Amino acid sequence: MNLGLYDVLFIILSCSLSFTITCISLKLWIRRAVEIGFVGEDMNKPSRVKVAEGGGVWVSLSVAFGLLFYIALNIYLLNKFANALELMALSLMLILASFLGFLDDILGWKKGLHPIYRILLMVPLAIPMVVIKAGYSTMAIPFIGRVDFGVLYPLILVPIGILGAANAFNMIAGYNGLEATMGIQLLFFTSIYTCMKGLRPSFEAAIIMLATIIGFLIYNWYPARIFPGNSFTYGVGAYYASIVVIGNFEKFGVLLFSLYFVELLLFIRGLLNGIYKENYGKVLPDGTIDLPYEKIYSLTHFAIKIQKVLRGKATEKGVVLVINILQFIIGIISLFLVHLI
Known about the structure:
This protein is mainly α. It has one domain. It has helices at 5-36, 56-78, 84-107, 115-122, 127-131, 152-169, 178-197, 202-220, 230-247, 250-256, 258-272, 299-311, 316-337; strands spanning 39-41, 50-52, 138-141, 145-148, 282-283, 289-290. Strands 1-2 form a two-stranded antiparallel ribbon. The longest helix is centred in the N-terminal third of the chain and has 32 residues, at 5-36. The radius of gyration is 20 Å and the shape is globular. The two termini are 23 Å apart.
């Protein structure tokens, strides 16, 4: 990618702004959330400590400000309007997704929106991408070749992709730092790929979100002082799908997202066995965790199982580490494999 001095400077300034806003807003929000009782139990700890909820909404707002700041720098200093439309649409989509997730967070875990209503309310999330007709209707499908979907791409395939990614990213969750580190990896490898391919503005969008989630992880790492909530998972999932669409790199995007397809298959396995699985482990008195079910219905259960086999016990941080190792391997494979199919 040919980045000029101003490009690099604007990206650094925008990332710094998003990172700073995230750190400041979360510090203030944690204190206020605890004061008003907007907290949830940390399910993987024996003491079930109370932790502030709804941290994801501040991540989304910070990213939106970072994107808008990047647009403003280009317009006011360089009179450059290229990619402004896509970045504005991304900002709006992110805020819509985070608002829906925050609504679910406010209503409470297992007491929030009914799954059917949640899916219906998520339909409008894709509207900003549909309105600007984001992406390219022609896609290269493995073993088939290039297919032009025409108007079906922006009106049908894009909304399905955004809704699917938002829901899928919410499936591998429930452990301190898990959602944040998985988001960091998705955006990290996406930043590398889009930089290599010169895909703008997906590169700028990915790296601004990456910097913001790093700021969030400071407060979400074990032991977490704030939970991401659905405002985080919906926002990051929908955002990831959107930058894939804008950059037209669906092949790489799907490969990098492979773990979430595995999680879906394990979830379906649970349903077939009459179990609507939870990711949490069974907490033991010494602080370690055990499998919550006899069978594995989530990658988090697999991470518990593999730890018990290798070291005789499983911990919350160990679950996060195992899943992130899997995602890192998939990221490396995706960077190489995408050139072969």
